[in-house]
Each structure stands twice: as structure tokens, then as C-alpha cells.
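Bumping my old thread because nobody answered last time. Still need a sequence for this structure:
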């Protein structure tokens, strides 16, 4: 195995191994500017803050986020796309600049709420009813 292969394997392992992976925090708001304002407040020392408008498919945004993550740096995203951040470790959901929900994407989809409603609207499913299974896009 070459040195390049070893380094690439280590980077992938760091990014995917939860105990070693830095936190991926997502702030989801109805507007990216609102989410960015809250993200800058809750994570003032994390740079860069990634602002990602819902201008592309959630799958593309998720792939972009995965490519941007660094093994040794926390990753903070401000977006208006709930479906794009389902790989996040923690999600803060804002409404009018106030955090109204927080938790893992799976936890937020398990209960009726703003995140579940936005997620369902984006992928064309109804996640606002309790007990719904979370299906892949």
C-alpha cells in the first residue's frame, strides 16, 4: 500500500468513525440568513460557517457536505434544507430567529414538528405524523 493510499484511508476513517469524527452541526431555518445568524451565535469560533441555500437537491447538498468535512474540524452548516442535513450529528431548527427544536435528525423526524414537516415537504412525504418510518429519498 502506498503512502497516498494510507493517508486517504486514514482521512476516510476519521470522517466516518463516530468516536473520532468532529461534530457536524446543522442549523435549519426558513431562510439561510436566519439560520446563519443563529449558527454564528451558537458556534462563534467555528470557521468556516457553510451557508447552503436549498437551490439543489438534498442528495447533492449532502454529498457536498461530506466532501467539505475535515477530519479534525467541527463542521457547521446553515441551510433552509432539512433533508440535506440528515447526516448531521445535531440539528437546530429555527423559526423567526429562535431555536424551536433540536436533536438528531432521526429524533426530530420521529415526532411531529417543524423539522419533520420541512423534511417531508422537500422529499414529498408526510413525516409530521408520529410513528412514520423515515424512508430514503
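Sorry it took so long. Here it is:
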Amino acid at each position: 500500500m502506498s503512502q497516498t493510499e494510507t493517508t486517504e484511508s486514514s482521512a476516510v476513517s476519521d470522517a466516518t468513525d463516530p468516536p473520532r469524527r468532529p461534530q457536524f452541526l446543522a442549523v435549519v431555518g426558513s431562510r439561510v440568513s436566519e439560520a446563519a445568524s443563529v449558527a454564528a451565535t451558537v458556534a462563534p469560533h467555528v470557521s468556516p460557517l457553510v451557508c447552503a441555500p436549498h437551490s439543489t437537491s438534498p442528495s447533492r447538498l449532502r454529498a457536498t457536505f461530506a466532501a467539505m468535512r475535515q477530519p479534525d474540524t467541527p463542521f457547521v452548516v446553515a441551510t433552509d434544507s432539512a433533508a440535506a442535513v440528515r447526516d448531521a450529528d445535531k440539528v437546530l431548527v429555527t423559526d423567526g430567529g429562535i431555536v424551536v427544536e433540536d436533536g438528531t435528525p432521526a429524533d426530530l423526524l420521529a415526532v411531529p414538528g417543524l423539522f419533520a414537516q420541512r423534511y417531508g415537504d422537500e422529499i414529498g412525504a408526510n413525516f409530521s405524523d408520529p410513528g412514520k418510518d423515515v424512508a430514503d429519498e
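The chain has five helices and five strands. Let me know if any region looks off to you.
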